[in-house]
Amino acid sequence: MLKTRFENYPKGKPFSAILGDLLGRGIFNVDGDLWRFQRKMASLELGRISIRSYAFEIVSFEIENRLIPLLSSVSDKEDIMLDLQDVFRRFSFDSICKFSFGLDPECLELTLPMSEFAISFDRASKLSAERAMTASPWIWKMKRVLNLGSEKQLSEAINMINTLAQEVIRQRRKMGFSNHKDLLSRFMGTVNDETYLRDIVISFLLAGRDTVASTLTSLFWLLANHPEVELAILAEADRVIGASLELTSLEQMRELHYLQATIYESMRLYPPIQIDSKFCLEDDVLPDGTSVKRGTRVTYHPYAMGRMEQIWGPDCLQFKPERWLKDGVFFQENPFKYPVFQAGLRVCLGKEMALVELKSVALSLLRRFHIKLAAPHQSHLRFSPGLTASLRGGLPVLIRDRRTPS
Ligand code: HEM
């Protein structure tokens, strides 16, 4: 594993460069000491029980009041296809905005236009990924100096993101923040620096939106192709929760071991962040003796690692939630073998919140609806360029209410 000296970015690296490094983290667009301080604060806030219950409250509200009504409105209509990926992206954007800033962009109201914030993020993410794939860095660097083509568009998207993030902070200030439970209000109680707060806003949106939507999209595609796994999830829910379809409590969600195993297994095959890089701040030596010079980019590949026979055995390409269960109880594989949430010093700070969100959505939708792929014979998923995995062409599905007699 990389030593801690491999911090993320050289001092003063611009946000565009951070986006270009495959997972944005504006919080850490800073030198090592400040990064450690900020990460510590974020980790203290996200570690609180109160914030987890707050996350559960928000997610439950979004599911009951927006997601389920939306799916119900198209259920049993054989001529209406729904792009589940688009729905999940809207859902996760609304949820992360409410959780992080206490503001509601209402993206899940399909009749309303998608938020300009979300559109700018998508544009910046796509352009950054395309930049990372250019044959030589000189091409994009030259375009950036001349402010041309894709670099001009990227800089416009980033300016828009920065302006909107500042607007979020202004609104939060105007509405008052002392009695609010969202993350930004908690930070505003102790920090007054505008740039720091702006970076927090951007970091949480980048970290918590597309990752969740991407996981849900692949999960539902896998479940549509593995009805036996779907049945096992439903049987576990009936056993643990009983007949009530309402989401009950965080404690009860934790008892859904098979569901958790299914989510982990789905992310093993389809990690939302397929590839991740770090830059080396000083000359260093990896544990296997490989020497790495200052400035080298070191990349690891969770997508490839999840499919390696040396790591997962001869059935590595099969979707088998059981590999995560010991006597029916979920057990965590070594995080260095499964770096879907990173590991060690840099492990995802929102992991617990993400799991609550993923389990809640999966459970609520599976228990109410039968979700059928509109193109059932697609044997593998195809991705578009972006910082987070997203399906080319979305995930068109047909929805059927489970209570409707067949
Ligand atoms: C399935 C969902 C998610 C996955 C797979 C995921 C994965 C990751 C990964 C791989 C990193 C490490 C990036 C790096 O430094 O190399 C990370 C960092 C982070 N994640 Fe998540 N994440 C998810 C959801 C969330 C959510 C919902 C939140 C917010 C509530 C969040 C907040 C963060 C933050 C703040 C960091 C920065 C930590 C740091 O760089 O030190 N994540 N995440």
Sheet with most strands: strand arrangement: 1-11-8
Report the end-to-end length measured between terminal Cα atoms: 53 Å
What sort of overall outline do the alpha carbons produce when their principal axes are compared? globular
Number of domains: 1
What is the highest CATH level, the class? Mainly Alpha
Compressed to H and E, one letter per element, the order equals HHHEHHHHHHHHHHEEEEHHEEHEEEE
Largest sheet: 3 strands, antiparallel
| Weakly predicted, low-confidence segments | 1-30
Helix content: 40-55%
Number of helices: 16
- Mind telling me the CATH superfamily name? Cytochrome P450
Beta strand count = 11
As for the CATH topology, it is Cytochrome p450
The assigned CATH architecture is Orthogonal Bundle
What is the CA-atom radius of gyration, in angstroms?
21 Å
Describe the structure using short key phrases.
406 residues; Cytochrome p450; two-stranded antiparallel ribbon; 11 strands; 3-stranded antiparallel β-sheet; disordered N terminus; 8% strand; mainly alpha; binds protoporphyrin IX containing FE
Description:
One of its GO terms (molecular function) is heme binding. Helix 5 packs antiparallel against helix 7 (149-175). It is built from 16 helices and eleven strands. The chain is globular, with a radius of gyration of 21 Å. The relative contact order is 0.16. The strands form five sheets. It has a three-stranded antiparallel beta sheet. Strands 2-5 form a two-stranded antiparallel sheet. A two-stranded antiparallel sheet has the order 3-4. By secondary structure, it is mainly α. Protoporphyrin IX containing FE (HEM) is lined by residues 23, 25, 28, 39, 42, 203-204, 207-208, 211-212, 215, 272-273, 276, 340-342, 346, 348-350, 353-354.
